[in-house]
Amino acid sequence: MSDAPLIFSPKPDRPAPADTVGLLGWIRQNLFKDVPNALMTLLGAYIIFVVTGAVVNWALIDAVWSAESRRECLDQVGRAGACWPGVAAWFKNLIYGLYPKDQVWRINLGFVLLVLWMLPLWMPKVTSKIGIGLSAVLLYPFLASYFFLGGEKALVWTALIALGLCGLIWVWSTALTETLVEKPLGSWVIGRLGVPEADERRQRQTKLICAALLFVAAFAFVSLWSLSEVRTRLWGGLFLTLVISGIGITFSLPAGILLALGRRSDLPVIAAMSTLFIELFRSVPLITILFMFNTMLPLFMPTGIEVNQLVRAIVAVCLFAAAYMAEVVRGGLQAIDKGQYEASSSLGMGYWQTTTLIVLPQALKIMIPAIVGNFIGLFKDTTLVSIIGLFDLMNMARAIGEDTRWLGLFIEPFFVVSLIYFVFCFAMSSYSMGLERKLATGRDRS
Amino acid sequence: MRLRYIAHAALALGLAAPAFAQETMETVKERGVLNCQVGLPTPGFYALAEDGTWSGMDVDLCRAVSAAIFGDPDQVEYQSVTSAVRFTSLANAESDMLSRTTTWTAVRDTQLGLDFTTVNFYDGQGFLVPADSGITSALELDGGVICVLTGTTTELNLADYFRANGMSFTPVTNENVNVLVETYLGGGCDAYTNDKSGLAARRSAFPDPNGHTLLPETVSKEPLGPVVRQGDDAWANLVRWVVFGIINAEELGVSSENVDEMTSSADPNIARLLGSEGNIGEGLGVSPTFMVDVIKAVGNYGEIYEKHIGENTPIGIPREGTLNALWTEGGIIYAPPFR
After folding, report:
1. Domain boundaries, chain B
2. B17 in contact with A at a CB cutoff of 8 Å?
3. Is B21-122+224-329 in CATH node 3.40.190.10?
4. What is the mean predicted confidence (pLDDT) over B293-306?
5. List of chain B residues whose C-beta atoms are within 8 Å of the C-beta of residue A298
6. What SS3 class is residue A392?
7. What is the pTM of this model?
8. A258-292 pLDDT, tens digit each
9. pLDDT tens-place string over residues B148-163
10. Is A217 in CB contact (< 8 Å) with chain B?
11. Which residues of A fall within a CB distance of 8 Å from B20?
12. Topology of domain B125-220, per CATH?
């Protein structure tokens, strides 16, 4: 008997069969596994070929690229090819509506500011993300609405705009100090000014003074310039669609969370009111709500008070979206185990601590697909405002076919509008999928 | 007790509304802008250009009223409203007047709190058929498939006409004109029906306009004109007499080109129209020479017609021999005298 230890030495793995690896293997496995499978593949490929071929022919090969009117297009190719010059001539209107062309930079600047404001949220070293997010929701609208609306600004209005400007400055100085010296803005400033760290009262005073100085400077700056007024009747196109859906989306999530919590609340009055609100708005079609707000609301208002038509539409969309969001959130809340509540109670947490620290973070994470699905739905639902006469993307596209020069041109504008909608909706859903992957930790039991 | 307060408050609000309506003129002057309601863009009547400007027959009435009040035709905010909410929007005082190819009917005039001021275009419903179908009369359409806009008087007129003539038809409906036109061009229906002005406009944009025939029958009366809220007679008078003024101007040969010379005309009718004699403007709450401003801004009725829907425009609706010719030329465009 030999004492030599028995050592297991595996043979090297044999390579996988040649027809199961690589591109060829994948094709064989997935597309041509057996005869019916292969037939389906060929049929599918044929259908794709025919459809894309027809679309490419119409949209690119047979299309007319320069013409002065639809008549010219028709004379060149009839209805076999697309007539793009009409869409090109109206493209600015599709994006900005009837907004004065020399003021369009204000819209662009407004959106650049939003991107700037949100950018720090994706910077890895920034820690005050909650503050930045909150300021974007609470302060950015003041700045943006003045850029978009313009006009006379009274004292309060000036102060609010200045507050918005301060918000932006704060966001970027915070992002910079946290990235470069890895300290919150406040303590960095205090460090630079040489205020002793132990003296909390003086620290608070210094911070307050700094904030006040910043506000006064911003106020003075804002009072110096003014923009011409652009009435909301001239807003339109993609810009209007983004404004309505943006406000709707921003409002619906917090409102939906509150409504859902309200509906599950132990306090009977709050629960009943939340339920009533949700069920009322959920059982009526959006178009009806829009009509109600558009035509009935002015009847109930005291004479002389005019509520802007756009505001009415936005309020209607917000309330409708909040009711739907509430039910999505309630579904998420119900998915959280009772054990989580009990565990947090046993740690001595109260209702709000349990909700904000334990329940909501878990619930929101599992709700991402449903929430984003709702956002996408809302984004597309905003086309309904065209029915009450707002010139959103859809209505603007329709207006092209009613222009005397481009009369009857309507497939091309709707084709372009579909592409625009697709880009936005696909971006939203891709982002949500990315977010899900990023947050898929711990709870994934599959 | 409390209920009674609420009822009183509601009543007060209700009473306040007509009081407000009495002063449309004051409101407009104070605002500095005339809120004029038009429809979703429609060529010839209220067309929207890509630079955001509105133009057309009906738009020129808004401009004319603005010129009468402010001496400037551009003090107008155009409110593009769908036909579904046009009357509520006017009744709610969101718009001061409505000028958007709206048919004057008894029900609308008496039951909606509206006042039809006058007629600026006489339209009527007709049928468009492919020329190679060989159809020459609407009476040959029995059993046919007809494309018709949904939710308008057009649909009802169609049903009335076929019933009155003991014929049957299958409707193809849509609320979008362009969809209907595509259906019609694709052979989805035998005839396309709409107001004749609309048919002419649409046909001009067909790949082959001459391949389609407008049938001679007119199956409905569609007198179109500006509308105001009921209960403000002074305001209704202004709108009505601006339109009358434009028609009188054509009859008297006053146009945007010769209006300055005409102010010194010896013809008393012209002198009264242009305010160089008498003061008709006073009774309307505007300046005596308001028609000079109006005609300078938009021209007389004939000029407006030729500029927007006449034969030299893409819309190309001939005027001669139709209802829309002046009464002196065989039509029924007629206005009471300025005196």
Report:
1. 21-122+224-329, 125-220
2. yes
3. yes
4. 96
5. 92-94
6. strand
7. 0.85
8. 999 999 999 999 999 999 999 999 999 999 999 88
9. 988 678 888 999 999 9
10. no
11. 303-304
12. D-Maltodextrin-Binding Protein; domain 2 (3.40.190)
Q: Under an 8 A CB cutoff, do B41 and A403 touch?
A: yes
Q: Chain B contact for A309, CB < 8 A?
A: yes
The average pLDDT across B103-123 equals 93
B91 confidence band (pLDDT: 50, 70, 90): confident
CB atoms within 10 A of CB B49: 17
Number of structural domains (chain A) is 3
Nearest CA distance, B49 vs chain A (angstrom)? 6
Q: What is the pLDDT confidence band of residue A116, given thresholds at 50, 70 and 90?
A: very high
- Residues from chain A that touch B16, judged by Cβ atoms under 8 A, are 302-303
CATH of the domain at A400: 1.10.3720.10
A234 touches chain B (CB under 8 A): yes
- A14-23, A222-231, B36-45: which has the minimum mean pLDDT? A14-23
Residue B178: closest C-alpha in chain A: A408
- Same domain as A179, residue A280: no
Same domain flag for A25 and A133: no
CB–CB of B315 and A291 under 8 A? no
Chain B: residue whose CA lies nearest to A309: B94
Q: Say how far residue A139 (Cα) sits from the centre of its chain.
A: 17
Give the residue from A308, A309, A402, A406 with the most B CB atoms within 10 Å of its CB, the best one to mutate. Answer: A402
Q: How far apart are CA A174 and CA B300, in angstroms?
A: 66
Which one-letter DSSP state was computed for residue A181? T
* CB contacts, 8 Å: A89 with chain B: 50
Q: Which residue's entry shows tokens 């939003």? A: A114
Residue A75, domain member (yes or no): no
Domain with A56, as residue range(s), is 17-61
Do B205 and A395 make contact, defined as CB atoms within 8 angstroms? Answer: no
For residue A304, the chain B residue with the least C-alpha distance is B20
CA contacts within 13 A on the Cβ side of A17 = 6
Q: Give the number of A-B residue pairs with CB atoms closer than 8 Å.
A: 101
HEC string of chain B equals CHHHHHHHHHHHHHHHHHHHHCCHHHHHHHHCCEEEEECCCECCCEEECCCCCEECHHHHHHHHHHHHHHCCCCCEEEEECCHHHHHHHHHCCCCCEECCCCECCHHHHHHCCEEECCCCEEECEEEEEEHHHCCCCHHHHCCEEEEEECCCHHHHHHHHHHHHCCCCEEEEEECCHHHHHHHHHCCCCCEEEEEHHHHHHHHHCCCCHHHEEECCCCCCCEEECCEEECCCHHHHHHHHHHHHHHHHHHHHCCCCCCHHHHCCCCCHHHHHHHCCCCCHHHHHCCCCCHHHHHHHHHCCHHHHHHHHCCCCCCCCCCCCCCCCCEHHHCCCECCCCCC
Which residues of chain B make contact with A78, given a CB cutoff of 8 A? 207
Residue A140 lies in a domain: yes
